[in-house]
Amino acid sequence: MRRLPVVGILAAASTVLATPATPPSWADWVGDWHGKLKWSSCSAQGEDKVSLPLDAVDGSVGIDLAPVGAALSSLSLAEDNGGWIGQQADVTVRVKRAKIDTLDFAIELDSGCSARGTLVRDSVGIPACDRLAAWARIESRCTKLSRPPLENATRLARQRAEWTKARGDERAKLAAQCSARTAKVEQQLVDAGCAPNPDPTIGMHGAECHALRGISARLQRCKNVPTDQRDAYAREVLVLLAAAQGADKASLPIVDAECRRTRDRLVVVARQAACPP
Q1: What contacts 225, CB < 8 A, 6 or more positions away?
Q2: DSSP 101-133
Q3: Among 2, 104, 182, 251, which is least packed by CB within 10 angstroms?
Q4: Average pLDDT over residues 247-257
């Protein structure tokens, strides 16, 4: 493999250092997010200051709401217009990425009680290394790996102090190193089924599998469908989408046909449950 000259490496690293990934990967979401919440229309409000862990475990994303209030617990999240949404019983949570390492967080109860706030994630000032730490965290929660983890999340946590102290060219070099390590970890997690392919169109050229994503997201937002059923549908769709991502040219039509059958069935479920668009 041809080696890039040092100048080229530093130039590439500077770009990585200054520009967040577009669109954001799971590593841009995973972490401990903390900040203040403002409550309204509540007879008994929850905590004003919170630290909420958002994690990806074996291919599913979720957030632990227990720090918000004793009556709340972990909630599965589904993709929703560039962000995430989770619903359970009378609780709905929405998470949007305001900017790098900053989230707009909202939680709503059917009673009308709600809380909103801006949450931040600690950063070492090198986005590529922040993403490496997040991917290592995802890797540590992946039970599907057939090989030992490539990174050690605990060791990386100790390295954060060194990353924070880095300056100038050293920061650019670290960014390049973190990016290279991140690519290997992310690929291993994609192969294991613990992370989505960064290119959503890979293995997804069938229109039916693309359409299945839409009806799945609609069901995940639908409170008229029981939570256990929504979770079961989400798992079923996740399996199909993973199969589509790994499908070759010969097998893709078979997977796409199954996506069509599943989509038709879920459309009926959404119609019968009077789910909003």
Answers
A1: 219, 233, 269, 270, 273, 275
A2: TEEEEEEEETTS-EEEEEEEE---S-HHHHHHH
A3: 2
A4: 81
Give the per-residue pLDDT at 4: 36
C-alpha dist (Å) from residue 19 to 127, 134, 169, 211, 235? 8, 17, 17, 31, 33
Alpha-carbon separation of residue 183 from 104, 159, 189, 197 (angstroms): 28, 19, 10, 12
- Name residue, tokens 């599998």: 209
Q: Are 38 and 115 in contact (CB under 8 A)?
A: yes
What single-letter amino acid sits at 232? A
pTM of the model: 0.68
Tokens of 48: 């004003």
Domain boundaries, the chain: 6-18+125-192, 26-121, 207-272
Q: What is residue 222's DSSP assignment? A: -
Q: What fold does the segment set 26-121 form as a domain? A: Lipocalin (2.40.128)
**203 touches 247 (CB < 8 A):** yes
Tokens found for residue 156: 């990386």
What's the pLDDT score for residue 120? 96
pLDDT tens by residue, 54-93 = 999 988 899 999 999 878 888 888 888 889 999 888 899 9
Q: What is the pLDDT of residues 93-144, one digit of tens each?
A: 999 998 888 999 999 998 999 999 999 999 999 999 999 999 999 999 999 8
